[in-house]
Amino acid sequence: MKQALKQISALVERFERNIEAYRSPAYNETQLRREFIAPFFEALGWDVTNKAGYAEQYKDVIHEDAIKIAGATKAPDYCFRIGGVRKFFLETKKPSIDIKSQTSPAYQLRRYAREPFGLPRAMSSQ
């Protein structure tokens, strides 16, 4: 637990130290995922990169999980699973997007989680 806290604190400190660069429109979602989101969840114990080498149906985290919504295929950025069962989705947005005032990220996430799966938890990050 102390190691996880130390890793997460280091991520927060780095983000705060370089906040202007990260909030720039030039800093993209892929960079955010690689530099902050994946390390954050790995610190919490999730196998984000499948280091365990599990088959697809047993992975802890599925990237761009293909799901059907109203006849269309959508792909939440992350699907977190335990024992192959979906527990929650995470939709990431680059830090320059204001997820507090824009309604589209919240609507998108609700469509992913609630409509087809009835998942009680879903998260959006920036």
Give the SSE map.
Layout: H1 2-17, H2 19-22, H3 29-43, E1 61-63, E2 67-69, E3 72-74, E4 78-82, E5 85-92, H4 104-117, E6 121-125
Parallel strand pairs: 5-6
Antiparallel strand pairs: 1-4, 2-3, 4-5
Descriptive report:
It contains 4 helices and 6 strands, in the order H-H-H-E-E-E-E-E-H-E. The model has no long low-confidence stretch (mean pLDDT 84). It is flat, with a radius of gyration of 15 Å. The chain starts with a helix and ends with a strand. It has helices at 2-17, 19-22, 29-43, 104-117, and strands at residues 61-63, 67-69, 72-74, 78-82, 85-92, 121-125. The chain is an alpha+beta fold and 126 residues long. The protein has one domain (2-125): tt1808, chain A, CATH 3.90.1570.
Write down how many β-strands occur, each being a DSSP E stretch of 2 or more residues. 6
**What is the beta-strand fraction?**
15-25%
Radius of gyration: 15 Å
Number of helices: 4
Quick one: biggest sheet? Answer: 4 strands, mixed
Mean pLDDT: 84
Number of domains: 1
CATH class: Alpha Beta
Short description, anyone?
The chain is an alpha+beta fold. Helices cover 39% and strands 21% of the residues. The two termini are 24 Å apart.
